[in-house]
Amino acid sequence: MSKKILCVVGARPNLMKIAPVIKALKAGPNPFDVCLLHTGQHYDSSMNDQFFAALGIPKPNINLDVGSASHAVQTAEIMRRFEPVLEQEAPAAVLVVGDVNSTIACALVATKMGVKVVHVEAGLRSYDRGMPEEVNRVLTDQISDILFTTERKAMDNLLREGISADRVHFVGNVMIDTLFSQLPHATPMLETLRQSGISKTFLNGKTDYGILTLHRPSNVDDVNVLRSLLITVADISQTLPIIFPVHPRTRGRIESYGLMELITSVNIALLRPQGYLEMLGLIKDARLVLTDSGGIQEETTALGVPCITLRHNTERPITVTEGTNTITGTDSQQIHAAVKYVLLTGGKAGKSPEFWDGEAALRIAAVLHDWLGTTQQHHVA
Fold this sequence. Notes:
Blueprint: E1 4-9, H1 12-26, E2 33-38, H2 45-55, E3 62-63, H3 71-89, E4 93-97, H4 101-112, E5 116-122, H5 132-143, E6 146-149, H6 154-160, E7 168-170, H7 174-182, H8 189-195, E8 210-213, H9 217-220, H10 223-237, E9 242-245, H11 248-256, H12 261-264, E10 268-271, H13 276-284, E11 288-291, H14 294-303, E12 307-309, H15 318-321, E13 325-327, H16 332-345, H17 360-372
Parallel strand pairs: 1-2, 1-4, 2-3, 4-5, 5-6, 6-7, 8-9, 8-11, 9-10, 11-12, 12-13
Helix pairs in contact: 1-2, 1-7, 1-17, 3-4, 4-5, 10-16
């Protein structure tokens, strides 16, 4: 008998994680009844449409349209709007992904209403409670019934927090499922530049380029940190042209702080926020990536592209121990040293971690069929 699973997304990184999960849940002779709910936490309709189309995700059955607000107000509003939906839909389980406000808000409502909670991408820890995402991760894991992890060491984090091992399943990384399936469709870098109105002469005849992404509050809300990072990147651009897709919030901070001139008279191409296939095309051929994004740390490791993470910690340590990632923090000297190392040596060789093989979502579906008592042919490695 088919059982309903209500899948929740709220922010763009969730979409890359949910796409293969929905596909796997709907596959086979006894598919789940999947209901997709978008909280509207990221509310840029044009960006959402780009991602849904590129990833082949069906349009959400339900959209809560919560929009932007403070963390507390946004979380509370999601909870308020989600409760009657959950009561009406009456799913066998609510499946949440990642660590955004939508994740903890919907998991908490489901738990209070006695509905089982499934957390995909569980057990990641930066051990920095100053990050709102860290609080969301810890709390969501505590109230989830089934937890799916991307790396084996995540189990150690969960066990230390008192979570029973029988609730945890190591399945691999669903973001890498999406990356492998979409890589053949990635938009070439020069096409992305052309669509953005930037001439390829920006490269000054070079084939190498770097990518920069910035959005963490710790990096963009502090004017001194942001100024230092932009000056550092401007210096790097004299050697390596930099493509910078600018997050709307980051652009707002740069403009309000009067820092735009630091990056407009140098060899930096400022792009509007890009769709998934455009970003994938930019990253896959880059000489290196400078970022404060968690997901890009994983994508660069899977693609074998050197990554320099502009944070003092990471909740994805496997990208450092096995992958291509180097943590520098925001210190200019450390960033310059890491870039110099990549340009001289090619950077860390790295390897693709265990179960980052494009089949994580199939493993998730197999476990859920067993757990919820549905009949399905499956095999879990």
